[in-house]
Amino acid sequence: MKDSCEVAIVGSGFAGSLLARILAVLGYDVVLLERGTHPRFAIGESSTPLANLSLERIGIRYGLADCYQLATHGRWLENFPHIRRGLKRGFTFYRHHPREPFADRGLDSERLLVAASPDDSLSDTHWLRADVDHHFARGAAAAGVDYRDRTELTKAELTTETVLLEGSRAGKAFELRANFVVDASGPGGFLGQQLSIPSGFDRTHTRSALVFSHFDSVRPMADLFPEMAVGPYPDDWAAVHHIIDEGWMYSLRFDHGTTSAGFLLTPRGLNALPAGDAAPTTLWNALLQLYPTIAAAFSEATPLMPISFRPLIQHRLARAGGRRWALMPHAFAFVDPLFSTGIAWSLRAVERLALAFEDAAHHGRVPDPAVVRRYETALVTEADQIDLVVAGAYEAMAHFDLFAAQAMLYFATVAFAEASQRLTPTESVAWNGFLGVGDQVLEPLPGESLRRLRQITSSRGEAGSNAERKEFSDWVSHAISPRNIAGLADRGRRNLYPVDFDALVAQHQLLGLSRDQILEAIPRLRGGSTLLADAGNRHSLPARDASGTRVEANQGP
Ligand SMILES: Cc1cc2nc3c(=O)[nH]c(=O)nc-3n(C[C@H](O)[C@H](O)[C@H](O)COP(=O)(O)OP(=O)(O)OC[C@H]3O[C@@H](n4cnc5c(N)ncnc54)[C@H](O)[C@@H]3O)c2cc1C
Q1: 346 lines ligand 1 (CB under 6 A)
Q2: Above 60 in pLDDT, residue 48?
Q3: For the segment 315-365, what is each residue's pLDDT rounded down to a tens digit?
């Protein structure tokens, strides 16, 4: 084992592995240190358009064909059918009430569907992380990264000159010197402990517990409600959210028949459950008993691994980077699976650090401290923003109308970001703020929304009056209007939102484009082919597939 390298990366989830591989492509000498082995179970599975846009950009910029191919369900199936995934056409929400079956009242149902893609081939995916992370770890090794699994790190010492890591592998102690260390080791991460980074938890609002597993034979809602009003996509091929009094449940269907499902329970919700402190399986069954439609969906399901419980899934540190170190988002902070922000945020961070190392490649070979400070500031502000959006959504769960309105804040923000990133891309697009950060219209909204919601609910889950709920929905609709390019918050839609290119064309001025410009650019939203053609000339790096083999230009990405 060599005892020095330029960059050490701790943790080989997709974020650590992908960054390691990009840095190797850029010519850095990288060691990737992993405590466990692949394949291994990991949670955090549902991707989004912004995540896939990052993957496409990474694929194009660094010549990593597989990243581009994994960015839509159609290309994924065509190129990597053995890597398991699920079709995710959008975000589906149902409101359930204790001891009552879900009420299918046609277009008046407590049901919200927001499409994220116009068809199956361009769709997002749920990632079976065991397969996906394994793929990315292999890709890193094939690109020349020194990948060391089953590594137990015991110490990190940082000076102004160097980083010293100590640990052992297969019973053999080692020391590794690096110029820079990136911590991609997730919650309770390595550097957080080694550098005694103070907690930043106090500044956050969201709190939830999780009971979860993977299951087979979960029945689709479409089977239970065959007469359900037709939505913009099949309800179940999505990130399905069941909102309940105690919190909410995610249900993510993979193409091979497995479903990842978990209940997120608020402290108040958990305390109110008689089985709140029982064994995970007892708690799971108690929740199913309370909600008959969810119970029906899981009536024939069997867990594929033991049902597990985590009493608190949030974490947050006070720092995200320094002179010779940086944390990936999941090592720095996590809020909640609601709205699936984790993968997109992590990939954005991969892009940013990759750009920082690109800049450093010709002078110093260590990211400029000013760039690391910029990275840290971005992560701190963005973690706050994600927390406000999600905390507001938990508050809004008191009534479905409030929730549907709050969800519009999130969807308007990401739809605007996706359209502007695709239609008016810039070299520094990865530095654009996540979830509206840096946008003078969008950035203040989550904080203001949380304040308004707490007034309505008295922070005790009260549903408020009809007038209060209507006022809140009207406020959201008005507040997002300068960025609402997707026809959202439209009562006429009855909570069923397809991808609406007509709305986009009608709102062309919000993106600073003429009607003709937007009509011409629409193919970019339909699959990125124009983006690719543009990129072909811009970047001269050779394309490589996951095994590191060079791909000829006409093969992709
Ligand atoms: C309940 C839950 C649900 C989620 N759902 C979603 C979702 O639907 N969509 C979404 O976008 N995001 C979701 N997320 C967030 C998502 O899980 C993260 O964004 C993602 O896992 C980050 O990937 P990563 O590669 O940075 O880290 P991780 O996936 O956490 O990987 C960390 C790696 O580091 C290794 N490691 C840990 N400690 C050490 C050490 N000391 N030394 C060496 N190696 C170490 C681990 O073995 C692991 O391989 C969810 C998170 C949770 C908790």
Answers
A1: yes
A2: yes
A3: 999 999 999 999 999 999 999 999 999 999 999 999 999 999 999 998 889
Which two three-digit tokens encode residue 383? 């973690």
- Per-residue H/E/C for 377-398: HHHHHHHHHHHHHHHHHHHHCC
What is the mean predicted confidence (pLDDT) over 541-547? 38
267: helix, strand or coil: helix
pTM listed for this prediction = 0.95
CA–CA dist 204, 450 (Å, integer): 12
As given in the structure block, the two tokens for residue 337 are 């699976």
- Round to whole Å and give the CA distance between 219 and 465: 36
d(CA 101, CA 96): 7
Residue 133: name the closest of 41, 52, 13 by CA: 13
CA distance 61 to 548: 15
Say which DSSP state 126 is in: E
Q: How far, in whole angstroms, is CA 14 from its chain's centroid?
A: 12
Confirm if 353 and 383 have CB atoms less than 8 A apart. Answer: no
| Long-range contacts of 501-509, Cβ-Cβ distance < 8 Å, separation of 24 or more | 501/118, 501/525, 504/419
3-state helix, strand, coil in the chain (%, to 5): 45, 20, 35
Name the residue of 37, 185, 211, 265 to mutate for ligand 1: max ligand atoms within 8 A of Cβ. Answer: 185
**Distance from the alpha carbon of residue 150 to the mean position of ligand 1, in angstroms:** 17
φ, ψ for residue 112 (rounded to 5)? -135, 125
User: Beta strands of 134-199 (E only): which ranges?
Assistant: 146-148, 151-158, 163-169, 172-178, 180-183
Ligand 1 geometric centre to CA of 42 (Å): 7
The number of beta carbons lying within 10 Å of the beta carbon of residue 483 is 23
For ligand 1, is residue 86 a contact (CB within 6 Å)?
Answer: no
Over residues 183-192, the pLDDT tens digits come to: 999 998 999 9
- Looking at residues 200-219, what average pLDDT do you find? 98
